[in-house]
């Protein structure tokens, strides 16, 4: 509930009309506004918010064999419940405004309405997996796998009106001293009553979402599919020494599911059709320049993807570049390069050398990994005509902000040199004695891994 604060007031010489005659002091009436505000009556209570509707339950998934006989399957999800309406706010108690009191008043506020509850979401339809020998047998299956309907959001409750004051302004006169004497003074205090605020209406609850229709999965065989182990995580050295067995059933996504079934069926129109199986022993072939023992341990996760491709996810501490191959049931991950992740961003500024056409920036690889990584540099170069010894608020102008062309970057051992003097810009700002700010962003990558590091330099060419 909002509460008004009283005005800060002092005696005023206003010459205002009042309900009582005001004695004067030096020809001026003494009038002041009251400083204290009190509440009378009682505010209305806020209404409770409505309960959200429960979500519908998902339909039960089933498996069947289509042998040509008619069959019906009810796999529909149930509907979400409607949210409850918010409760209306309660009226305030407005009676009993005090009269002729020596303080301001505020009438009670109305209660706010409660928010409506959210509607529940419909349950998704169940899936049906069908084994068959004759595709025409699918036409004998009637399936209702529709998703449940969404529940509606509840209405917000109404706020109630705040109380209004019966009397909005009044004055009381206070005198001190002896009438007729010089010490006799009177002042009139003016008081106000502020109407109460009306309560706000509650917000409407959001509607739930409709449940998704269940999906049809079909398998052109009568024998049940074998169980699968599509992914496993094992230690790096373990995978080198002992292959692991992976397997995955593969599915093609197609459209037109309802046309395959009996008329009146309701399923997601996108269905999945079994296309075969990938399985085999997965091994790790370490062909990186440095031995596996040079790197910290950790697990590698190998997985056969839904499209049949074999992938590997190495521990966060290791960047690896690898390829995969398959011969019969032998799946091989061949690592051709590897670096420690912590060594990728151990670059440092080696300063700036030369000026004009011979200006170059030096970046040092403290970890010595540059032979194994791809490194690209982005450069922001700013120069100024001023001198920081004379002016602390120099204005720097950007003269280059782009990737450094690969032909202007050379690597000698663990030392990169960026030929700034050969950039396609005016060499005037690169003359000896100029002050400059350089921001270099190194982007380093290996395989699917990538990281950035910023290196700054500021000084005089």
Automatic annotation (TrEMBL):
Residues 58-75, 94-103 have a biased composition (Polar residues). Residues 41-51 have a biased composition (Low complexity). It comes from Leptolyngbya subtilissima DQ-A4. Residues 110-122 have a biased composition (Gly residues). This is Collagen-like protein. Residues 41-122 are annotated as: Disordered.
